[in-house]
Q: What sequence folds into this?
């Protein structure tokens, strides 16, 4: 795959695994992250260019893409992956946390998409991949803020796709389930289900690049369940959620195990 790819939020987790998988396929990868030390370490371990970027700032994001193109050539793909997940009762969320979540998860993705399209549309080619979540289409107590931010990513990605689809540029959303990264620290998996690994999401991104589609659910088997679930009466949907413990997962978490993650996303 002789593609040039920039990935945000790639110092760790899903972004890092995606960078690794794309590099293994022959892509020229540039990673960006707000965490300066972590992105430098990740870049060195992968043997790719690593840059600091704050996806909430137009100036920072534009400079990231400019520097990525200087280092690697015109971008074929931009993966808007950076995101945070505050959890807990909605009444406990501070206004500052809410703004930061929307700023990173929603405005960061919108900004990254717009800046990528500015480069790709004149060339008539490219692919913007936005990391949404199953949390953008299925909603859970304790996750209102994150649910809202990811629903916005799903809607924004689809409307943008419809707008530019005849101009040679693909726009896709990836909707992973629970994935074992620091983002889910201190939470339990749904009963009887195994979390994905970051490598599973990375493999789905690699596959999506080879075969562009509007939306990819990971694991793929959950796509049908989500579509069917949306048709069920509220009472039945809630009974199923209770069976899997989904009604309590983001309320009965372990705050100690989440401390380091919480501190990281607030700085
Ligand atoms: N882990 C899951 O269960 C899961 C499930 C579905 C979707 N997602 C989404 O996948 C994406 C990656 O999540 P992850 O699980 O790998 O989390 P993670 O915390 O391991 O990695 C996220 C990275 O984003 C970076 N980041 C945060 N704010 C930033 C900013 N303003 N500018 C640039 N970088 C910034 C962080 O420093 C971190 O390195 C997120 O959008 C997340 O919402 C995760």
A:
């Amino acid at each position: 795959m002789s593609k040039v790819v920039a990935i945000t939020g790639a110092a760790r987790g899903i972004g890092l695994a995606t960078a690794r998988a794309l590099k293994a396929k022959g892509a020229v990868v540039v990673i960006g992250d707000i965490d300066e030390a972590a992105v430098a370490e990740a870049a060195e371990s992968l043997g790719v260019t690593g840059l600091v970027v704050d996806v909430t700032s137009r100036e920072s994001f534009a400079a990231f893409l400019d520097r990525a193109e200087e280092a690697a050539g015109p971008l074929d793909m931009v993966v808007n992956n950076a995101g945070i997940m505050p959890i807990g009762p909605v009444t406990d969320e501070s206004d500052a946390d809410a703004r930061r979540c929307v700023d990173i998860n929603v405005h960061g993705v919108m900004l990254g998409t717009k800046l990528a399209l500015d480069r790709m549309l004149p060339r008539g080619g490219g692919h913007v991949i936005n990391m949404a979540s199953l949390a953008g289409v299925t909603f859970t107590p304790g996750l209102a803020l994150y649910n809202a931010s990811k629903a916005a990513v799903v809607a924004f990605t689809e409307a943008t796709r419809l707008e530019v689809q005849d101009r040679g540029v693909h726009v896709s959303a990836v909707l992973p389930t629970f994935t074992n990264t620091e983002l889910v620290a201190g939470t339990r998996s749904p009963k009887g289900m195994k979390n994905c690994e970051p490598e599973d999401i990375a493999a789905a991104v690699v596959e999506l690049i080879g075969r562009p589609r509007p939306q990819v659910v990971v694991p793929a088997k959950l796509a049908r369940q989500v579509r069917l679930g949306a048709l069920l009466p509220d009472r039945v949907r809630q009974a199923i959620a209770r069976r899997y413990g989904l009604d309590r997962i983001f309320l009965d978490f372990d705050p100690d195990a989440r401390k380091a993650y919480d501190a990281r996303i607030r700085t």
Summary: Residues 8-9, 11-15, 33-35, 53-56, 81-85, 104, 108, 131, 133, 176, 178-179, 181-184 surround nicotinamide-adenine-dinucleotide (CB under 6 Å). The chain has nine helices and seven strands.
